[in-house]
Write a structure and sequence with these properties.
Number of helices: 6
Helix content: over 70%
Order of helices and strands: HHHHHH
Distance between the termini: 5 Å
Number of strands: 0
Radius of gyration: 28 Å
Shape: elongated
Length: 166
């Protein structure tokens, strides 16, 4: 994997992590909605298209109720159900793509020691300013490091990640 891809994955990690959690909740809800709509679509559709009149009808299936009966008998679904199922498919595809980033970055962070992970998370992933990272590092570890010292830690950690990803 190229360095640019690794850097992009690291910088998008938080967003992809949050989006994956959201999609993992949303997809089952949409699937329940689609299943519920499939169960009631015949009654819902027929009740909307039924026309009561005293006019005689022909024997062809040109009437709305007959067309719907043929559509449902052949396994067809309404446009609204089809749209929801397409949305589910699209969201599953998005989840699979974003989950790759979450899994890769999680694995890379496991390879780092606590101090390297801290610097990479704060500066590379969260994109904090160096002065903030220096202050937070001092608070977290009780050690005063300069910006250059933390950059050296970050660079060593990124080299470790690049080796893992290659």
């Amino acid at each position: 994997m190229q360095k640019e891809s690794v850097d992009a994955m690291l910088s998008n990690y938080r967003e992809h992590l949050a989006r994956c959690e959201y999609l993992e909740c949303e997809i089952p809800e949409l699937e329940r909605l689609a299943a519920s709509m499939r169960e009631t679509m015949v009654e819902d559709t027929v009740s909307c298209t039924q026309v009561i009149s005293d006019m005689p009808r022909g024997t062809s299936i040109s009437d709305p109720t007959g067309r719907l009966a043929m559509m449902f008998a052949s396994g067809g679904v309404t446009e609204h159900v089809r749209q929801i199922e397409e949305e589910i498919t699209e969201k599953k595809r998005e989840l699979a793509q974003k989950r790759v980033t979450v899994i890769f970055v999680g694995a890379w962070l496991k390879a780092l020691n606590e101090r390297e992970r801290f610097v990479v998370e704060k500066q590379v992933i969260d994109k904090l300013f160096w002065r903030d990272v220096v202050r937070m590092y001092d608070r977290a570890f009780g050690e005063v490091y300069s910006k250059h010292g933390l950059k050296a830690i970050r660079d060593a950690a990124l080299q470790k990640i690049y080796r893992i990803a290659s």
